[in-house]
Amino acid sequence: QVQLEESGGGLVQPGESLRLSCSASLYIGSGYCLAWFRQVPGQAREGISVLDNGYPTYKLSVKDRFTIFRDDAGNTLFLQMNSLQPGDTAKYYCAARIDRGGGCFLLDHQYTAWGQGTQVTVSS
């Protein structure tokens, strides 16, 4: 079972950028669905981006501001977040599961590996 660990969160001002990293204990290249979720206390976990065989999909509220990508070695997943807004404040989690066909979706119950999360706070 792959183990994941996020890093890169922090406190930024509106309009600034952050890059989150998700280091994996195993190769998470082709054959895996890779995703980023976020959660605000008291609210449900929200899927924001998924990488399906190299093709990214984004939640509408982050499209054109966030970019999901993986390093060539296939051990690290990233989330580049630009033009951050106070509404992006949350704890961010990376998630992975083996792609058994049928596509990769932002359904948290489908993912079998999760990191511990990294806090992102956007405030002036």
Describe the structure concisely for a colleague:
Helices cover 0% and strands 48% of the residues.
Folded structure, characterized:
By secondary structure, the chain is an all-beta fold. Helix content is 0%, strand content 48%. The chain is built from no helices and 11 strands. Strands 2, 4, 5, 6, 9, 10 and 11 form a 7-stranded mixed sheet that branches. The termini are far apart.
Figure out the total of helices.
Answer: 0
Mean pLDDT: 94
Radius of gyration: 13 Å
- What is the oligomeric state here? single chain
The counted number of beta strands is: 11
Question: What labels describe this entry?
Answer:
124 residues; mainly beta; 7-stranded mixed beta sheet; 4-stranded antiparallel beta sheet; 48% strand
Question: Topology, pairings included?
Answer:
Layout: E1 4-7, E2 10-12, E3 18-24, E4 32-39, E5 46-52, E6 55-58, E7 66-70, E8 76-81, E9 90-98, E10 113-114, E11 118-122
Parallel strand pairs: 2-11
Antiparallel strand pairs: 1-3, 3-8, 4-5, 4-9, 5-6, 7-8, 9-10, 9-11
